[in-house]
Amino acid sequence: MSTEVTNPPSALPPFDTGQHLLSVSQLDRAALTRLFAVAESLRPVGEGRMVCRILEGAVLGSLFFEPSTRTRLSFESAFRRLGGSVVSTTGFTFSSMAKGESIHDTARVVSGYSDAMVVRHPDTGSVAQFAQASVVPVINAGDGSGEHPSQSLLDLFTMREELSSRDKSIDGATIAVLGDLRYGRTVHSLLQILGLYDNVSFRVFGPPALALPSGFFDLVASTGNRIVECDSVDEAIAPADVIYCTRVQKERLSEEDEQAVHLHGDLLNTAILQEHASPDAIVMHPLPRDSRHNSFDLSPDVDGFPGLAIFRQTDNGLLVRMAIFSIALGVADRVADELRPA
Ligand code: CP
Question: What is d(CA 52, CA 151) in angstroms, rounded to the nearest whole number?
């Protein structure tokens, strides 16, 4: 099993106008505060009450080489809601990569047709290769088991909002992280970016074959936060303010993993929540959740649980992705002036 942090913080420039967004390591607390303020100011646009055409005439290149519903559609919707248009390709079959074209050539070509690119690709580090060849900002929409920075930003935005409604904050929160901690890139980005907050306690539980790589324990410890590996879901969630679940990333399991992973039943369901969690707990999941029988995921029977925030997460994804484009393309300071009634 890998003990590496799959996409360690590196010397990438801070995320700002004209920059790529490849890793959460490009953000600090001030950058988060600004991005969340821009996202909040765009809420009336996301809800269709106002319009804001600050990206009129701009074109987004949307390249998804792995399946996606919410990331692709929310990025594309975000760009269109700000007045821009989208050119896209999905899967390897329908791009000239099927004829052997390289990441370099693909990135350079598409960046010549667009003002920003959003890229998802199955290989860790591949989106950084796209960025190297691109002449416009590239947003990492998921690179293998590496990172998914926009997901972490919408997760943080949601966590902040949900905790605030309970007179709590991320600083000082106890966060249980459950499921596939080995391949779940949303978990990897989240553990990393929560290092910007103080006095956070993580309680992690994953099946042994899908346990968190040891490098992440060191990463969390280096930020001054605490992390405890739990032996069960019950133990992990008991004191949690936030319970963050992930699905098993079956598409990333090797044959050896598949032999080692024998999962059945639910990762979390109403009976477990009622018996072991605080009634005030916030339940999150990046989605999709695997609704097939015995998928070892968040059961649909939790949909009546008051703290279930999964669809507020997906709605917030639109706001956060509009804010990412506004900052990357240098129009964030004009958002408030450009809002018009719908
Ligand atoms: N959370 C997430 O990345 O969902 P999709 O795979 O549907 O984009």
Answer: 23
Closest atom of ligand 1 relative to the 69 alpha carbon: 7
Distance CA 45, CA 83 (A): 11
Q: Ligand 1, closest atom to CA 317? A: 1
Name the residue with tokens 């007179």. Answer: 167
Torsion, Cα 13 17 19 20, to 10 degrees, reads 120
**Sole residue written with tokens 């992280």:** 177
- What is the Å distance from ligand 1's center to 71 Cα? 5
Domain ranges for the chain:
24-147+315-341, 149-313
Confidence at residue 260, expressed as pLDDT on a 0 to 100 scale: 67
What is the rounded (10 degree) CA torsion for 244, 248, 254, 260? Answer: 90
Question: What would the CATH number be for the domain defined by 24-147+315-341?
Answer: 3.40.50.1370
Q: How many Å is the Cα radius of gyration of the chain?
A: 20
Between the CA of 27 and the centroid of ligand 1 the distance, in Å, is: 21
Span 116-158, pLDDT tens digits: 999 999 999 999 999 999 999 999 999 988 899 999 999 999 9
149-313 matches 24-147+315-341 in CATH topology: yes
Distance from the alpha carbon of residue 300 to the mean position of ligand 1, in angstroms: 18
For the complex shown, is ipTM > 0.90?
Answer: yes
287 lines ligand 1 (CB under 6 A): yes
C-beta of residue 175 within 8 angstroms of C-beta of residue 240:
yes
Q: What fold is seen in the domain 149-313?
A: Rossmann fold (3.40.50)
Range name among 37-41, 88-92, 226-230 with the lowest pLDDT average: 88-92
**Please, what sign has the CA dihedral across residues 185, 188, 192, 194?**
positive
Please work out whether the CB of residue 286 comes within 6 Å of at least one atom of ligand 1: yes
